[in-house]
Design goal:
five-stranded antiparallel beta sheet
């Protein structure tokens, strides 16, 4: 039997399989589960347990950025401008989000 806490988590958590590697994407902000206003700017964390990941990856998600704030030279349709799979996974929930890696090299 599964504990009720596992069926209904207290904080948002997603199990991810990106490029054949499993990991956990989560937030410590429980308001993301119940208040859509909390989705303006928030933090997500990713941990894979892989040897090469020595620290939890800290991401800042901004779901209300404007098109004029993006780099004008950036052409997302260009095959040379590829997005990390982590960003693509996050954008399945927040389609037009701006994702900051906070100084960490993008993984996956």
């Amino acid at each position: 039997q599964v504990c009720p806490g596992l069926r209904t988590p207290q904080v948002p958590i997603w199990l991810c399989s990106l490029c054949g590697r499993d990991g956990v994407l989560f937030s410590t902000n429980s308001l993301l589960l119940s208040d859509w206003r909390a989705e303006r700017v928030f933090q997500l964390y990713f941990y894979s347990g892989q040897r090469e990941q020595t620290n939890t990856t800290h991401l800042t998600i901004d779901t209300h950025s404007h098109h004029w704030e993006k780099d004008q030279s950036e052409d997302s349709s260009s095959p040379r401008k590829r997005r990390p799979s982590m960003e693509m996974a996050i954008r399945t929930k927040w389609a037009s989000a701006t994702i900051s890696w906070n100084g960490t090299d993008p993984i996956f």
